[in-house]
Specification:
Four copies of one chain form a homotetramer.
Chain A lengths: L1 H17 L6 H8 L3 H8 L2 H23 L6 H18 L1 H12 L7 H23 L8 H17 L1 H10 L13 H13 L4
The structure holds a DNA duplex (21 and 21 nucleotides).
Chain lengths: 201, 201, 201, 201
DNA sequence: GATGAATGAGGGTTCATTCAT
DNA sequence: CATGAATGAACCCTCATTCAT
């Protein structure tokens, strides 16, 4: 039913922008132009609506990234594609990354085992790339999770802070560089990380 | 006067762990063992309590980092000290970084101009370091804000996700590496970033 | 739907006897035997509940008085009917007149434009009667609003002070005349006013 | 002490304009620029502060009117002086009349016996005048309390509604007559009432 | 599927009042 | 006299949720 989809879409946007607690079922129902009770008919509870959205988002992200991993021919290219795929997902599915940031800050109180499992799956793809790079001697030995956070943290902060940076530019003078990008960001991120990871040779 | 401090301390912890909306004034008063009305006597409103905490935190972080900048002798060392100072503050003042993550996700709805200004001050310190590095030819030209996000994003995600990673380890097998650090994280972060930033020659 | 009516009726009585501020939504809900949240479901806010009641009352008063104005054959009779109609409404809709007294004392802080407009409509009916009387030479020239206040003020004070007068009689000796009426009050009021308004001839 | 007077003066104004319940002790303390606890030091409770003001006001009104009653030579002049004295007090002590209107509407919940007694004293002055007029055949027999309400009600409504009428003029066109007086109001009121009371011959 | 009405619990906030100094 | 700090009760309002239709 299209109403079900409208609820999901509105709720996702609201949860992303305002957070779980600041989003009321009333707001969701008004935004989706449906009766409040209908949300309960479809999703049973607020908690369930939230985790439905989360699982759907992370699964879709996982599948998208996974799909692009066929193209890999070597670890460096693998890293490039991974970062690019991640970056693209963070643009397309910006809402999820906002939710993710909040969940990290809240120690993942609302994250179900299934959601965590899928997220680990995404990280495992990177792990394989890096381990294969270390094995082949192109990457030095690093704590893999630091690289995870390098990618996830940077992209999340960057792509979720657009509005905030816009706001800052309005409030302060001479801060236009906060919005204008010098070169392709995903590319720069890749360059910095791949250089940083290179083995000493 | 000590009651005022108790309120600030409890509120900060709660806001950090649960977020602004999920934290009730009742909770704060119970945690600080004071009458709820006393919070209003000292802080006028929840919003004001929150922004008082924010301003206090960011100012203290700014001052701490600023204080360490005397030690700098060259851009590479400056970067190292900056990252280390930032990292240390993120450990000491973990609560603020959780709040920061949520505020980024919410487009900074609760951030006052003064708070933003102070935060910009922290970023400006890094900007100077990088620009001086570019000038001296040790760093290649990069979009400075990408480096900002590399540092802030990575450290925030890493140091705020400790509990979440612990939780994951309890729920899933063979994930101990999520907690055990290989080497010093701040040092690794520095190495990756400084290599990444190096100019091509 | 009957619950909505119960809320309106209880709220009206309470607002009249205790005033806007002394009337709590808790009281209203208990009196109407409904859940407090239901009042907000139907009326959105206390302020809105109050102004709904006011508008409904003044409209009904206006219509009742207007309806009796067909009977008029000359200004003196018009005045008589007006006073009588006003008096009857002040008995039937006593609550409104108590609210009116408080609103006058508060400079009408809670009175919406629509309420004021309708009230002006009631006063305009009197204005027409008096002006036609002056034109025909039966009434001397007077400041019309003094006559308004003569009627509205006297009737309001008289018909809202019943309980207070009863209370006085209980507290003091020899004050029975405060309750027992000598003759018909509306009639006396009419006689005094019509004599008073007569042109000198 | 002058602070005591400041409290009384501010409280009186606030009680008059906003009513007992809408006036908070905080407001009073801020308006009078004194510490809140000092009000309790001087007046023990809000209720006591209120009734102190009331008793003081009504006593002063009683004395002022009583003082002018020496001038009387006949009932008609007595009535004129009474109305004029009342009118003057209602201008000078406008606050009390606003409070009075609210108290009537609330069945005098806050009125102490002493206050009521003093108010009855004011009414008794009028009663004497009228009774002497009836005795001398200049006034017809009327229910005295109707005359009371004629005077008190009209003057109260008229002199407390100035701000409200001003507001109406701002909101609606062609209502200037609500503020501009045609002739002396106290004089008109006297003329209307004395004509109205005249015995038939 | 879809809705309007209804509810108990809890939200932030303000209140009159007290007390130690 | 005068004050800053502190409190319990009550305020208006919103919440997630349910139910009859």
């Amino acid at each position: 039913m299209e109403k079900r989809e409208a609820i999901l879409s509105c709720a996702k946007r609201l949860f992303a922008r305002k957070g779980y607690d600041a989003t009321s079922m009333d707001e969701v129902s008004k935004c989706a132009d449906v009766n409040k009770a209908l949300i309960y008919y479809h999703f049973k509870s607020k908690e369930n609506l939230y985790s439905t959205i989360l699982l759907h988002s992370i699964s879709s992200i996982h599948d998208s990234i996974k799909a692009r991993m066929d193209e890999i021919s070597n670890p460096e290219e693998g890293l490039k594609i991974y970062i690019d795929a991640f970056y693209m997902e963070a643009i397309k599915n910006n809402a999820f990354f906002r939710i993710l940031m909040r969940e990290v800050a809240s120690d993942g109180v609302h994250l179900s085992k299934k959601v965590l499992e899928t997220f680990l799956g995404v990280l495992d793809i990177l792990k394989e790339i890096i381990e294969s790079g270390v094995e082949k001697g192109v990457f030095g030995e690093r704590d893999t999770k630091v690289v995870h956070f390098l990618i996830v943290g940077t992209i999340s902060f960057y792509l979720c802070s657009g509005e905030l940076r816009k706001k800052i530019i309005n409030d302060f003078l001479d801060r236009e560089e906060l919005l204008k990008d010098i070169g392709d960001v995903s590319q720069q991120l890749y360059e910095i990380i791949v250089r940083g990871l290179k083995s000493d040779v």
